[in-house]
Amino acid sequence: xxxxxxxxxxxxxxxxxxxxxxxxxxxxxxxxxxxxxxxxxxxxxxxxxxxxxxxxxxxxxxxxxxxxxxxxxxxxxxxxxxxxxxxxxxxxxxxxxxxxxxxxxxxxxxxxxxxxxxxxxxxxxxxxxxxxxxxxxxxxxxxxxxxxxxxxxxxxxxxxxxxxxxxxxxxxxxxxxxxxxxxxxxxxxxxxxxxx
Length: 196
What we know:
Blueprint: H1 2-17, H2 23-43, H3 51-70, H4 89-111, H5 118-147, H6 152-155, H7 163-194
Pfam families: DUF2238
InterPro entries: YjdF (IPR058534), YjdF-like (IPR014509)
Keywords: Membrane, Transmembrane, Transmembrane helix
């Protein structure tokens, strides 16, 4: 499983890095995937995650690498999708930005026994995801300020005035969907990993 994950990750990363639309944007978009990959390798023996979480982290990394290769505003098949006036591939990325961190936060909070009770745990998980999404939007803003016009592809607003708010809204929906759809399956996998 670990080897297959690494092979897929590296294969998509190499493809993504071959003649990307914009090298600077590629680096910015792929950097979180690279950080995640390193963290997962470093913690694999000391804090092994559920196979479902590894799968969704890999999917999220692939979303980032595809966005890095084309830039989010120019990913094929997303132009005019469902009658939209803009390429909405970045919205897929922001949905994942809530969906996958919700599973990660849930797994850490449960395994470390940080919060008692499902309701408070879910509130904290959603709050973590919103904080993460807001922080990412701040990073995009800082990059735009530091690099000027070069950041337009990274920001991916495509002239949409509510881009930042809709990005965070989609991360919120992703976190809620993740908790609603996957909590029971996640609980079963957690029992296998922890033996409880």
